[in-house]
TrEMBL record:
This is Vitamin B12-dependent ribonucleotide reductase. It catalyses: a 2'-deoxyribonucleoside 5'-diphosphate + [thioredoxin]-disulfide + H2O = a ribonucleoside 5'-diphosphate + [thioredoxin]-dithiol. Transmembrane segments: none annotated. Its cofactor is adenosylcob(III)alamin. Pfam families: Ribonuc_red_2_N, Ribonuc_red_lgC, TSCPD. InterPro entries: RdRp_reductase_class-2, RNR_2_N, RNR_lg_C, RNR_NrdJ/NrdZ, TSCPD_dom. It is an enzyme of class 1 (oxidoreductase).
């Protein structure tokens, strides 16, 4: 940034009565550096754009812990390593970036009097290092970009600006916003001070109105984005509902969407990133209407509502409140904008009302504070705090929160800011934004549905404990280095909000031992907040928000971002050394075990999910457990009000708000949008945004009708036709490998669900299976005849070269009667006789590695897994983490078989469909994989960096291939 204000001079720590903090060692080991407890390995990071084949990044020999995924190490290498690629100054190890950040924080803590002794400073350094390298939390991206480098030490990701009713102020708005965009961050502001187009200027002319000035700001953001930023500029524009230009503001983006459709139909390239999309306006901002309780009550009562002049405050026009509300909902239904921000709720929880009202938010809507301010964020990985007994370790979580909040406050002491006014406000009020990720995965692992009373109770108590602990530490810091500069004039208001949080905590109704334990800790934390705050005051005006955690979520190897549920039950994973594979969500087996399912049942359910992408009709899964596995997308996706209710469960325990979008199906109605907005207000949310599937033209491969779907269908048809033509040219003449006259065979008697039978199998001299004979039913019966014919067909197929594993993958998990218990200790449960027969054949004739790939293990191997975490003897395997990570389906694409169908197998013997490995059909991300499995497109943009489809993260989108975001940090 060319205009940077240092926080160092302005942030001199105010001396308090304490002598520094005593830092407790909780995570690290005394006498051992955190790095020395880890096995490190070298990797090559090579990133390509799959569409063009162009290598967009390459750095070889980077160093990471062996338990970090390839995806996490790739994103950190490409996004956070500093220095020119290929130069000696380029960072090449995770140790480098963690050291430059942690050592900078520790030095500032020493310089500004945060630690009681040098020993405490060293413990702080080790604890922070341990938490980061073990992926327990992460700072927001600007910290990794800037801290410890020659660049300005900007640590904040979220900014709120202000603009007054003057040309100087408006032009300054353009300038300040431009500097923030240039640095890769986003900003929001409220335009309601600008006179409407229905009011007069002092010269006697008519004012232009805020919407006209939005055009200039939008063009500026688009230009700066085009100048080489890795993601589009992120903006939030807010207008009060009583502004006379509110209807024009509401309809701006909806009218532009109509224009986009007309231009698209005329042949222009109007997709997101298309060359003609720049001809339309207002596409670089999220729009929100700031509504008051007065307006919402008028909507309920069906009365009119007054629009007020900006200068005098007098009512210059009255409108029907329900009519205006319908226009807001209709515009959101048409193009996803505007969202709503609930002004009275926001300001009722404001700790600094004597300084000024909260009028706006950052682009993702989670940071809501004073004008001309900023907030630095950090998020914890909740799944790391799940104990072996599937309860949440609230005590350990609270210890981590205390340390992280301390570090976040220290950062303000040395931080730089893009403008003088932002620097002053941030230093004076020290806004922090601690939050979390992986809530969806945590709830699933605990056997709790996201849209359930149990899930909401757990989320409430964890959020309450996080914010209560944060303010407790803030009060302790105030006793050491003094309260924030603006505390004195806002002391009563701040303490009133603390009591509101405490009262909200008292209303939480716990449903289990797990959430009761966390709630007990939260209750004690809030009691300490009230007592310590009365004595010391508080170091921070704000403590917590729930951010999207896009890029940093991948850095922590989180399955889910922010407060979101799981995106889908199948994931896309990169492999060390190149390639990728499909994995079933790692928390599913743990959840099934928590719900009481046996290992054989877990194998069958996971195999079903690998094939179908959902749990509906999964073998043996009880319907009452379906809700545990509900996801954001696909079959059994969570209903819109389920998202709203979860936000409402967490909101009373957050200083700020929540970045989240309520997704609606394409056939949703305007009335449903109205209901979501109305219920969000009644449930006490601070902000709500919606997105209806396929409502935007510029979303490639949108599900539903229209040109996007037609284009996708045409492309798929063309790819299938091309593949067929190539396959027709291949001549393949199989030869039969007959069995010797005398061969080794074995006969197995079995019982499945009470039905008895016999199987005789014969092998070639090399031990390869060559024939089977099945004896079921009485001689001469229809069943016996069918089994004889089936045996001959399978035997001939084996002799003509059909691999046994192909038969196993096709016939295991077939479900029909008789089914149930067997008398075979290696296969205790069977879905059918066919399921049993081919599992038995796999155990008898397939080597371990092929059986493991199909998820078929002997009783001895399963027992070994329970004891050691490995199916194989320890000396023959890799790390246990590699073995238990997840069932997989490898996606194969080789040059010589590029256009032929490829049969995929999952690790539990699931019958996988044949996936043509053509470029048009190959998945590159979880979003594309979900499309492939379900046949329904995910309505999200393509990544500008690597060309893959992004997935939702809060109110933004994130690319799981390279970590790029659509505006959030």
């Amino acid at each position: 940034m060319t205009e940077t204000v240092s926080g160092k001079a302005a942030a001199q720590a105010k001396a308090g009565s304490g002598a520094g903090l005593k830092i407790e060692r909780v995570f690290s080991t005394e006498g051992v550096h955190p790095y020395d407890e880890i096995t490190w390995e070298r990797r090559d990071v090579v990133q390509t754009n799959w569409k063009t084949g162009e290598t967009v990044f390459e750095q070889r020999g980077v160093e990471f812990p062996d338990f970090w995924s390839v995806n996490a190490s790739t994103i950190v290498t490409t996004k956070y390593f500093r220095g020119a690629v290929g130069s000696d100054q380029r960072e090449w190890s995770l140790k480098h970036i963690v050291d430059r950040v942690v050592k900078t924080y520790t030095k500032a803590g020493r310089d500004f009097g945060y630690f009681r002794s040098e020993v405490d400073a060293e413990v702080f350094e080790h604890e922070l290092t341990w938490l980061l390298v073990h992926q327990y939390f992460s700072f927001n991206s600007p910290v990794w970009f800037n801290v410890g480098t020659p660049s300005p030490q900007q640590v904040s990701a979220c900014f709120i600006l202000s603009v007054d009713d003057s040309m100087d102020s408006i032009l300054n708005w353009y300038k300040e916003e431009g500097f923030i965009f240039k640095g890769g961050s986003g900003a929001g502001l409220n335009l309601s001070r600008i006179r409407s187009s229905k009011e007069l200027l002092s010269s006697g002319g008519t004012a232009s109105g805020p919407v006209s000035f939005m055009r200039g700001a939008d063009a500026s953001a688009g230009t700066i984005k085009s100048g080489g930023a890795t993601r589009r500029a992120a903006k939030m524009v807010v207008l009060d509902v009583d502004h006379p230009d509110i209807e024009e503001f509401v309809e701006t983006k909806a009218r532009e969407e109509d224009k986009i459709r007309a231009l698209r139909d005329a042949g222009f390239d109007m997709d997101l990133g298309g060359r003609d999309i720049t001809s339309v306006q207002y596409q670089n901002a999220n729009n929100s209407v700031r509504v008051s309780d007065e307006f919402m009550r008028a909507v309920e009562d069906g009365t009119d509502f007054g629009l007020r002049a900006r200068k005098t405050g007098e009512v210059i026009e009255r409108v029907d409140a329900r009519g205006l509300f319908r226009k807001i909902a209709t515009a959101a239904w048409e193009c996803a904008d505007p969202g709503l921000q609930y002004d009275d709720t926001i300001n009722d929880w404001h700790t600094n009302p004597e300084t000024g009202r909260i009028t706006a938010s950052n682009p993702c809507s989670e940071y809501m504070s004073l004008d001309n301010s900023s907030c630095n964020l950090a998020s914890l990985n909740l799944l790391k705090f799940l104990k072996d007994d599937d309860t949440f370790d609230g005590e350990l979580f609270a210890k981590a929160v205390e340390l992280i909040i301390t570090a976040m406050d220290i950062s303000i002491c040395f931080a730089d800011f893009p403008t003088e006014s932002i620097g002053k406000t941030t230093v004076d009020y020290r806004q922090l934004g601690i939050g979390y990720a992986n809530l969806g995965a945590l709830l699933m692992a605990m056997g709790l549905g996201y849209d359930s009373d149990g899930g909401r109770a757990m989320a409430s108590t964890i959020t309450s404990l996080m914010t209560g602990t944060s303010y407790k530490r803030s009060a302790e810091l105030a006793g050491v280095v003094g309260p924030y500069n603006g505390y004195a004039r806002n002391a009563e208001a701040h303490k009133r909000v603390m009591r509101k949080h405490q009262a909200a905590n008292d209303t939480v109704r716990t449903l289990s031992i797990a959430d009761s334990q966390v709630h007990k800790l939260a209750t004690q934390a809030w009691a300490d907040v009230i007592a310590l705050g009365e004595t010391n005051g508080f170091r921070n005006a704000q403590a917590s928000v729930l951010a999207p955690t896009g890029t940093i979520g991948f850095m922590m190897d989180c399955d889910t971002t922010g407060i979101e549920p799981d995106f889908s039950l199948v994931k896309f994973k990169k492999l060390v050394g190149g390639g990728s594979m499909q994995i079933v969500n790692q928390t599913i087996p743990r959840a099934l075990k928590k719900l009481g399912y046996q290992p054989e049942q877990v194998e069958a359910i996971v195999a079903y999910i690998a094939e179908h992408g959902h749990v509906v009709d999964a073998p043996g899964l009880k319907t009452e457990h379906y809700e545990v596995f509900d996801t954001a997308m696909g079959t059994r996706s969570i209903k819109p009000m389920g998202h709203v209710r979860m936000m409402a469960a967490a909101q009373p325990f957050l200083s700020g708000a929540i970045s989240k979008t309520c997704n609606l199906p394409e056939d949703a109605t305007v009335e449903e949008v109205e209901e979501i907005y109305l219920q969000s207000w009644k449930l006490g949310l601070k902000a709500t945004a919606i997105y209806r599937d396929n409502c935007k033209v510029g979303q490639p491969l949108a599900d539903g009708g229209g040109k996007a779907k037609k284009d996708a269908a045409d492309a798929a048809a063309a790819a299938d036709e091309a593949a067929t033509k190539v396959v027709e040219k291949i001549v393949y003449a199989p030869t039969r490998k007959r069995l010797p006259k005398s061969r080794v065979s074995r006969t197995t008697s079995f019982t499945v669900g009470g039905a008895e039978g016999y199987m005789t199998s014969g092998a070639h001299d090399d031990g390869e299976l060559g024939e089977i004979f099945l004896k079921l039913g009485k001689q001469g019966s229809t069943l016996a005849g069918v089994m004889d014919a089936f045996s001959i067909a399978v035997s001939i197929g084996l002799q003509y070269g059909v691999p046994l594993e192909t038969y196993v993958s096709k016939f295991t998990n077939l479900r029909f009667e008789p089914a149930g218990l067997t008398d075979d200790p290696d296969v205790r449960m069977s879905q059918s006789i066919m399921d049993y027969i081919f599992r038995r054949l796999a155990l008898d004739y397939l080597p371990y590695d092929k059986r493991a790939a199909l998820g078929i293990y002997s009783a001895e191997e399963r027992q070994r897994y329970l004891e050691t975490g490995s199916y194989e003897p320890i000396e023959e395997t890799g790390s246990p983490a590699e073995l238990i990570e997840a069932p997989v389906v490898e996606l194969v694409e080789t040059p010589e078989a590029k256009d032929e169908p490829v049969v995929t197998h999952d690790s539990h013997g699931s019958d996988q469909r044949e996936v043509p490995a053509t470029p048009a059909k190959t998945a590159h991300t979880s979003a594309e994989l979900l499309e492939q499995i379900t046949g329904h497109a995910v309505d999200s943009p393509l990544c500008f960096t690597c060309g893959t489809k992004m997935r939702p993260a809060g109110s933004c989108y994130v690319c799981e291939g390279c970590g790029s975001t659509s505006g959030c940090s």
